[in-house]
Amino acid sequence: MKQLDDYRDKHIVVLGLAKSGVQVAKVLHQAGASVIVNDRKEREQCPEASELEALGISVICGGHPDDLIHPGVSLLVKNPGIPYSVPPVQKAIELEIPVVTEVEIAYHLCEAPMIGITGSNGKTTTTTWVGKLLESAGLSPIVAGNIGTPLSEAAATATEHDWMVVELSSFQLKGTEAFRPRIACLLNVTETHLDYHGGMDDYVASKAKLFANQTSEDTAVLNWDDPVCRNLVPYIKAHIVPFSMSESLREGVHITPPYTPGAQDSDEDDQGRTIIYTDGEGFTHEIIRVENIGLPGRFNVGNAMAACAIAIAAGVAPDKLEEALSSFRGVEHRLEFVAELHGVSYYNNSKATNSKATHMALTSFKEPVVLIAGGLDRGSDYEELIPSMQGRVKAVVLLGETREKIANAAAKAGLKDIILVDNGEDAASTLTSAVRKAAGLAESGDIVLLSPACASWDMFPSYETRGRIFKEAVHNL
């Protein structure tokens, strides 16, 4: 573990008592900083407070005191989900006090080289897959970050012989300054989280901070099929390794024969297609036939290609990738197979918190789909779902704040069976009712898919809770 002497005797405020806040407070305290942790929740809602106080760390719950941020504060470390509009953050900005997230602290702490992976969709699947690829090749990956384990906790135990494989959100990246991953990957960029960022410019700029401190000694893996990713090329100093499903590349990971740009899963067959790597020196290496990839869906082909590019950049030989690509079966709540009942297959895609993610899920299936969707209203009209509904979705069951908006999109797509579920006694009973209605509409050979296209927070504390309730409801049919 690196020494954090720069933080010794500094007055540091940690804003937010989530897992990452607790861990980063411990790290900074061990480094000799004077740490105050603040959370607006009441004390009885902050069970972690006693643990920190036993270590000698000050904790303030129940609101943000006016004098929390003052000129003597050297650094504010905030929970990524806390908006920049809250008074303590605004005051820190006014006083020119640096505002960072845990990622920045963990970077200074970590001895292992870092692989940073971000994107609007596919982050968790790709991050987990990279860990499997490295492990299968005999390397020592530590998978952490937005994926579950707090990054500063994992970084404290990492050695120079490990690889730190980190899933990163735009919220986390916005609060970085010196963070420099050895390998950085941007999977894709689509319109999401605009309520937090205030617009696409800030959202894209936050994602792009992944590359800001890289040099020519580092590697940037980019989705060559995504125009936003390609537009970042002039600003990236690292060696760029692209991946593409629609172009042949002199260097990078691509498919032969390539897919037609814009084609959907049902438009072109995967049979006979192969993922290959070209090294820029004229050598071509076959990695895996597309039909042998362990996860369904065209978008998971893209995730697999990104994972290959990252693993190769980390030193894995292309011929060592096939087994882990074919054996990987995915991550909970990401197009997760739940059960087959009476010939109907049920899939949990609760992590689909935007329309693009739901579109990608729908285009993964050739069977008729009964779609369960709806959730927090962030202002979208959901009309981008119309093309993926047409010819694929036979019925929709809708709940949450957006149910009428998605119903309008479904009607424009020509669907006749559009069921709106009213709120029951609680969120669990409402979703359970939706599952039963969907099961009643499905026939043998159909898919029932939970893919909400919305965040969960209007009804559930997290997409994980939503997904687990869905699975329980399916098993109770």
TrEMBL record:
Keyword Transmembrane recorded: no
Binding of ATP, residues: G119, S120, N121, G122, K123, T124, T125
Family: Belongs to the MurCDEF family.
GO cellular component: cytoplasm
Keywords: ATP-binding, Cell cycle, Cell division, Cell shape, Cell wall biogenesis/degradation, Cytoplasm, Ligase, Nucleotide-binding, Peptidoglycan synthesis
Subcellular location: Cytoplasm
Predominant location category: cytoplasm
Domain of life: Bacteria
Listed HAMAP family: MurD (MF_00639)
Catalytic reaction equation(s): UDP-N-acetyl-alpha-D-muramoyl-L-alanine + D-glutamate + ATP = UDP-N-acetyl-alpha-D-muramoyl-L-alanyl-D-glutamate + ADP + phosphate + H(+)
Residue span(s) of domain Mur ligase C-terminal: 333-454
UniProt keyword Cytoplasm, yes or no: yes
Gene Ontology biological process terms in this record: cell division; cell wall organization; peptidoglycan biosynthetic process; regulation of cell shape
UniProt domain Mur ligase central: residue ranges: 117-311
Enzyme Commission identifier(s): 6.3.2.9
This protein's pathway: Cell wall biogenesis; peptidoglycan biosynthesis
Regions crossing the membrane: none
InterPro entries, per database record: Mur-like_cat_sf (IPR036565), Mur_ligase_C (IPR004101), Mur_ligase_C_dom_sf (IPR036615), Mur_ligase_cen (IPR013221), MurD (IPR005762)
Function per UniProt: Cell wall formation. Catalyzes the addition of glutamate to the nucleotide precursor UDP-N-acetylmuramoyl-L-alanine (UMA).
UniProt-recorded name of the protein: UDP-N-acetylmuramoylalanine--D-glutamate ligase
GO molecular function (one): UDP-N-acetylmuramoylalanine-D-glutamate ligase activity
